[in-house]
Specification:
Layout lengths: L1 H18 L1 E2 L10 E16 L2 E20 L3 E17 L2 E6 L8 H9 L4 E6 L4 E5 L16 H15 L1 H12 L7 E2 L3 E9 L3 E14 L2 E12 L10 E15 L5 E16 L9 E14 L2
Antiparallel strand pairs: 1-8, 2-3, 2-14, 3-4, 4-5, 4-6, 6-7, 9-10, 10-11, 11-12, 12-13, 13-14
Helix pairs in contact: 3-4
Length: 301
């Protein structure tokens, strides 16, 4: 009788273990609209010509995502910006831009306002990877009509916008908050690794180890530890390249029903140097030591 009871106990323990294993992935509903609101604060420090320069950048806004189609592998989504703002505190002064306050002559705020409520499409996998973004040119159509700008000025404004809000930048930023899912079932205490890329002002590879810390009511609680390393920029026309490394810690709460992020915080610290290539304006080039410490907060409302 004892071996039989031992077998029953073993099966019971295994059943409990299996019950605690969950599949964490996006489970979005066709026709539903999901929101993501984010705010970031970055403190940038540089040493240039014997002087230490510090700049604080605040950037944030809100996006909405309407699910158009549900497939076996993911979702076709219609996205649009609902709000954008940016503040830069520099030694020379403070600059503020907002889609809510596009005053006459404020070109950047005007660009932000022009980008609002202009839908574009993207494809997202169930594991949060953004595989395609379409029709983003719709964001900037007619944006310059109110302003008398030269072609050179238009190119400068577009280059600045593309660094933070272009297709590659948007893909990298979204995957930092969406591509957090394991490829298979995971138990509390289980870990998995993902690899993503940042593609804004600098390009960087991000390798993250996530852990399912807890299941609390209707939410999964996940923590992450990331290693960040900038990628070599092979574009000869690039005004500068970055050689930087660092870390990031994250804490994320996902809705169990949908996998959509309810709230999250991401703290990042990287350091290294910006490298200016040899050019007529800067013979021999230059290396500028710099560091970036920042925090990003994300919520679904």
């Amino acid at each position: 009788m004892k071996p039989f009871l031992t077998l029953i106990a073993f099966v019971g323990v295994m059943s409990v273990c299996v019950a605690q294993t969950v599949s964490v992935e996006l489970n979005l509903e066709k026709g539903a609209t999901y929101s993501q609101q984010s705010s970031s604060t970055s403190i940038v420090k540089q040493s240039y010509a014997g002087q230490d320069i510090e700049m604080t950048i605040n950037l944030g806004g809100k996006m909405s995502f309407k699910v158009l189609t549900v497939t076996n592998t993911g979702y076709d989504v219609e996205a649009q910006y609902e709000r954008l703002y940016m503040t830069m505190d520099m030694p020379t002064g403070t600059m503020e831009y907002s889609s809510d306050n596009a005053a006459p002559g404020d070109i950047m705020s005007g660009m932000f306002a022009a980008m609002m409520h202009r839908p574009f499409q993207m494809t997202i996998t169930r594991h949060g990877k953004v595989t395609e973004i379409r029709n983003m040119s719709n964001l900037f159509e007619g944006a310059f009509e109110k302003y008398e700008l030269t072609d050179e000025q238009k190119q400068q404004v577009m280059a600045s916008l593309s660094q933070s809000f272009g297709e590659e930048a948007l893909k990298g930023n979204l995957e930092m908050t969406m591509a957090v899912f394991p490829t298979g079932p995971v138990a509390v205490g289980g870990t998995w690794t993902t690899e993503t890329e940042l593609r804004s002002t600098m390009q960087a590879a991000v390798k993250t180890t996530y852990k399912l810390d807890a299941i609390e009511g209707d939410y999964y609680v996940i923590s992450g530890k990331s290693e960040i390393r900038t990628k070599v920029n092979t574009d000869p026309s690039a005004p500068m390249t970055y050689d930087m490394t660092g870390t990031m810690t994250s804490r994320i709460k996902l809705a169990k029903k949908t996998g959509w992020i309810s709230d999250g915080s991401y703290k990042q610290s990287i350091s290294g140097k910006a490298v200016f290539p040899d050019n007529p304006q800067m013979p021999g080039g230059m290396e500028v030591p710099m560091s970036i410490d920042g925090e990003v907060l994300v919520a679904d409302k």
